[in-house]
């Protein structure tokens, strides 16, 4: 079977959904706004200064280590390029959260966390979207998507394309290397592990489910919004463990304050009472603690 046509790389950005006009009187709206403003903010379990100090120490450590002669490289993932692994070692900051309870539920479905500062370079990002066969039935449908000028979108495959064109390992490896971000119609997500292999999901490019249909039809507005959300989010697959590692950004493309905001965004998605400890690290640096629970 022949693959679906390539989606043109867009220059424009998705438009934000228009807010629904409220019928509430202006006086009441102003009163509610003031009440919201005067409400005390939820106390953070880790203060920004502590996170910033730890990140600063990590940046200094990585800078020192990068100036040393390179040592023998460790075993590389078959799905990763050498350049990708070097970038991850030297540039990516991770939040390591240890929880009090062990997660015993197996899943391959990534969870998304919207970040204050996106760490992906949208000028270079290559996004591939995999959709249900019935959503792409004609070139007119593809043209309507292309006319949206969605930034970063370079290819659309149907699930049938994936099943027929990427049966062998080398083809899957090539697909993995051709794109930076994989998004998949939530309706066919459960088919992908068999179609692409579980090794694909263990890489740093595990396909992320998105909701792009309305009344079982493709929604162009949802597609725009979901793509924008994905680009500015970080993802992780909940492990069968009480140790969760989530990328917060790159120390090379975000400043310390921006990294602090992203770390706080990640921490805020967890129940404070379930957290045992929190660390920040790169794959090259030691893990520096920024929080320990009083009660284990």
TrEMBL record:
<keyword id="KW-0689">Ribosomal protein</keyword>
<dbReference type="GO" id="GO:0005840">
    <property type="term" value="C:ribosome"/>
</dbReference>
<dbReference type="InterPro" id="IPR028364">
    <property type="entry name" value="Ribosomal_uL1/biogenesis"/>
</dbReference>
<protein>
    <submittedName>
        <fullName>Ribosomal protein L1</fullName>
    </submittedName>
</protein>
<dbReference type="Pfam" id="PF00687">
    <property type="entry name" value="Ribosomal_L1"/>
</dbReference>
<keyword id="KW-0687">Ribonucleoprotein</keyword>
<feature type="region of interest" description="Disordered">
    <location>
        <begin position="64"/>
        <end position="83"/>
    </location>
</feature>
<feature type="compositionally biased region" description="Polar residues">
    <location>
        <begin position="36"/>
        <end position="47"/>
    </location>
</feature>
<feature type="region of interest" description="Disordered">
    <location>
        <begin position="1"/>
        <end position="47"/>
    </location>
</feature>
<dbReference type="InterPro" id="IPR016095">
    <property type="entry name" value="Ribosomal_uL1_3-a/b-sand"/>
</dbReference>
<dbReference type="InterPro" id="IPR023674">
    <property type="entry name" value="Ribosomal_uL1-like"/>
</dbReference>
């Amino acid at each position: 079977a022949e693959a679906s046509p390539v989606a043109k790389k867009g220059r424009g950005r998705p438009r934000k959904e228009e807010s629904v006009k409220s019928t509430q009187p202006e006086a009441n709206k102003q009163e509610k706004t003031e009440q919201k403003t005067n409400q005390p903010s939820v106390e953070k379990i880790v203060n920004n200064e502590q996170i910033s100090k730890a990140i600063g120490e990590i940046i200094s450590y990585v800078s020192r280590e990068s100036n040393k002669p390179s040592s023998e490289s460790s075993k590389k993932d078959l799905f990763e390029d050498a350049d990708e692994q070097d970038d991850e070692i030297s540039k990516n900051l991770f939040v390591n959260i240890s929880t009090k309870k062990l997660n015993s539920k197996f899943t391959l479905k990534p969870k998304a966390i919207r970040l204050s500062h996106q760490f992906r370079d949208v000028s270079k990002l290559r996004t591939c979207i995999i959709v249900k066969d019935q959503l792409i039935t004609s070139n007119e449908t593809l043209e309507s998507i292309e006319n949206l000028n969605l930034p970063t979108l370079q290819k659309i495959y149907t699930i049938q394309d994936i099943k027929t064109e990427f049966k062998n390992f080398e083809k899957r490896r090539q697909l993995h290397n051709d794109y930076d971000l994989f998004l998949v119609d939530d309706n066919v997500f459960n088919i992908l592990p068999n179609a692409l292999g579980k090794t694909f999901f263990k890489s740093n490019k595990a396909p992320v489910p998105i909701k792009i249909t309305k009344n079982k039809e493709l929604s162009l507005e949802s597609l725009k919004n979901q793509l924008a959300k994905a680009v500015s989010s970080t993802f992780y697959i909940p492990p069968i463990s009480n140790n969760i590692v989530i990328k917060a950004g790159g120390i090379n493309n975000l400043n310390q304050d921006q990294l602090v905001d992203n770390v706080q965004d990640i921490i805020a998605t967890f129940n404070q009472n379930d957290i045992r400890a929190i660390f920040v690290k790169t794959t090259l640096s030691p893990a520096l603690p920024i929080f320990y629970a009083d009660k284990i």
